[in-house]
Amino acid sequence: MRYRPISPALLVSELTERITAITARRRIAVAVDGAAGATNTTELADALVDPLRVAGHAVLRISANDFLRPASLRFERGKEDPDARYTDWLDLGALRREVLDPLAEGGSGRVLPSLWDPVRDRATRAERVELPEGGVVLLDGEFLFGAGLAFDLSVHLWLSPAALKRRVPDRWALPAYERYEQEVDPTALSDVVVRVDDPNHPARYEP
């Protein structure tokens, strides 16, 4: 794979241009996917907010971490089960129903910004947000691709196997990331792939 070194600021600029070029959709869903704690998915999604607003888009930031299942379901097989981390932690049905379906053509545009507080293990009771036409949802998280979630732009922050082992904070979860790489191959599914072995010196994949 061929990668082009790119500064974080230029990456944000290029992604902003890519998002604003999406004109065939009334509302836009953007996903930034990568290993939690080892890639800067949150920072990248946050950095896109202001440039998109300057470009005239209403923006709603959403974290997949606010759509986890209750602890009783996530930890049914223990708190350090990599297979559960991969298949059972994220409430894909809720993300689809509460966030992505309202963005679809003919959807209501009323998006639920959060569902579950994983720290307090209780519903957030958040109110729905009306996203106007031209609005953008920026969603960050892990294991977002390959499960049928519909995004208008998919960005994957990729780590080499060595960097993943070096940087992932939950080492017990390594088999989950390896399984994701093997079964889903997120680099093949993503519109934009960024190598982030060194988070301060990313490189964008050039096909």
From TrEMBL:
Keywords: Kinase, Transferase. Gene3D superfamilies: P-loop containing nucleotide triphosphate hydrolases. One of its GO terms (molecular function) is kinase activity. The keyword Kinase applies. InterPro entries: P-loop_NTPase. The keyword Kinase applies. It comes from the Bacteria. This is Uridine kinase.
